[in-house]
Amino acid sequence: MSQAFEVEVKKDTSNDEVLQWVTFQLEEETYGINVMQVREVLRYTEIAPVPGAPDYVLGIINLRGNVVTVIDTRSRFGLMEGEVTDNTRIIVIESERQVIGI
After folding, report:
1. pTM given for the model
2. Residues in domain CheW-like (predicted)?
């Protein structure tokens, strides 16, 4: 789950390649994901818990008939739990042929 997301254009000066990042904020830190890995950004929705899953796994969501595991990035980065607000989003990403939400 992420808060305060935006699409930002960054220029990689090493080879003049233009990269686009979806940025999000957790507490006072800003993180970025290559826009090519982002499938979509969802409003926070009900997450079904998965018994026996690691603490950083919030659970699963149904995304148009596909099951997507949702990871708690705060927990994964060792941050305190945050509250869900109107700005809370789930960023659905594809990495190494896996689709997950963060």
Report:
1. 0.81
2. 18-102
DSSP 1-62: -EEEEEEEEEEETTTTEEEEEEEEEETTEEEEEEGGGEEEEEE----B--TT--TTEEEEEE
Residues shown for the chain:
102
Domain limits of the chain?
Answer: 2-101
Residue range 18-67, pLDDT digits in tens: 788 888 888 888 888 998 999 999 999 999 999 999 999 999 999 999 99
The C-alpha atoms of residue 42 and residue 90 are separated, in whole angstroms, by 5
Domain 2-101: assigned CATH number: 2.40.50.180
